[in-house]
Design a protein that fits this description.
378 residues; globular; 14 helices; alpha/beta; single chain; binds pyridoxal-5'-phosphate; 3-stranded antiparallel beta sheet; 14 strands
């Protein structure tokens, strides 16, 4: 891959990010010190939640949220059929079963009616996913009854129908990921936000072995009251996250500009359309710039299109293979064919390069290469 390769997403690290990390490395506390606390406070303030608890990844955040919500063996957790596998695996981590719900074939967002249809007396929670950065209305899902956990790995900085994503105005908890491909990064890191202090305390215990240190039994004393993990977010990672958070608005503004530029150019091409509608651009999280391509109508093969683009320095990706199609879930009795919306979305989706240091020339290069690729792949 040459210098000019455009991946579908990538991190932007400036000198001040490096300096922020170096300052922590030269200090006394490398993990769970004052920088983590500052990062948590800053994220809670940014999204308008009462608290935020940092953990070592978005996946750890989902696991911790399921634990804190009291989900366990015998429980069912409704999960969209289109998402990253971690959105479903978190139910398995706590011994519960994910129950997949179908998605809108044109947006990939989970369908309220299909979730309602899958409710049973065992349904303990619903994981909603703000896919690509488009928001689902958490209020409507909360009205169904079970605990709602928002997977906002794609939606840091997005605004939903009930306010900033992460404010948890109607959900119990919101989960973020700061993996390098996401909108802002810690290298590896995640965060849970919410408003119920009992959930916050459970999350804090869970990320540190279930240990409580405030117990009054002497200076050496600590008590393990529950089974937790080491899911701590280090101060080194938190320093990067805090520095990146200061740039989030700039990152988002640039992503909005690039999305608008893509929209204008794609308007002229038959059988391609952006997943995000123009009016949604202002409130979208813009993690992914996904388009729907009618490969069948064009008589083009997606794998060939992707290879053709890659050879010309343009990275694309498919988000996502329906989770019920994964061998692990097939073995548990699920079939992707039962999710018509998910299959229709999966067949057509392609994520194009989107990251803040792209230029408008880059966007033009991607769109013209894509039209050529579609013609070449017939
Ligand atoms: C990235 C992602 C996760 C997991 O986050 P990690 O930080 O990589 O563990 C969970 N859900 C969705 C939708 C994601 O895109």
């Amino acid at each position: 891959m040459g210098r000019d390769f455009l991946p579908y997403g990538r991190q932007i690290i400036d000198n001040d990010d490096v300096d922020a990390v170096a300052r922590v490395l030269r200090g006394d506390l490398l993990t769970t010190g004052p920088t983590l606390a500052r990062f948590e406070t800053a994220v809670a303030e940014r999204v308008g939640a009462s608290w935020a608890v940092g953990v070592s990844s978005g996946t750890a955040a989902l696991h911790a949220a399921c634990y804190a919500a009291g989900i366990g063996p015998g429980d069912e957790v409704i999960v969209p059929a289109i998402s990253f596998v971690a959105s479903a695996n978190c139910a398995r981590y706590v011994g519960a079963e994910p129950v997949f719900a179908d998605v809108d074939p044109d947006t990939g967002l989970v369908l309220l009616d299909d979730v309602r249809r899958r409710l049973t007396p065992k349904t303990k929670a619903i994981v909603v996913v703000h896919l690509t950065g488009a928001t689902v209305d958490a209020r409507a899902f909360a009205a169904l009854g079970p605990t709602v956990i928002e997977d906002a790995a794609h939606a840091v900085g997005a605004i939903g129908a009930d306010g900033p994503v992460g404010s948890c105005a109607s959900s119990a908890m919101t989960v973020f990921s700061f993996h390098p491909v996401k909108t802002m990064t810690c290298a590896e890191g995640g965060m849970i936000t919410g408003n119920d202090p009992l959930l916050r305390d459970r999350l804090r215990g869970f990320r540190h072995h279930g240990i409580v240190t405030e117990a009054d039994g002497g200076p050496w004393y600590y008590e393990q009251r529950e089974l937790g993990f080491n899911y701590r977010l280090s101060d080194v990672h938190a320093a990067l996250g805090l520095s990146q958070l200061g740039k989030l608005d700039r990152f988002l503004e640039r992503r909005r500009q690039l999305a608008r530029h893509y929209h204008g150019l794609l308007d002229d091409i038959d059988h391609i359309r952006p997943v995000t509608r123009e009016p949604e651009i202002a409130t979208h999280g813009h993690h992914l710039y996904s388009v729907l391509i009618d490969f069948e109508a064009l008589g083009a093969d997606r794998a060939r299109v992707m290879t053709w683009l890659r050879e010309r320095g343009i990275g694309t990706q498919v988000h996502y293979i329906p989770i019920p199609a994964q061998p692990y879930y097939r073995d548990r009795g699920w079939k992707a064919e039962d999710f018509g919306g998910a299959v229709a979305y999966y067949r057509r989706t392609l994520s194009l390069p989107m990251f803040p240091t792209m230029t408008t020339d880059d966007v033009e290069r991607v769109v013209s290469a894509l039209s050529e690729a579609l013609a070449a792949a017939r």
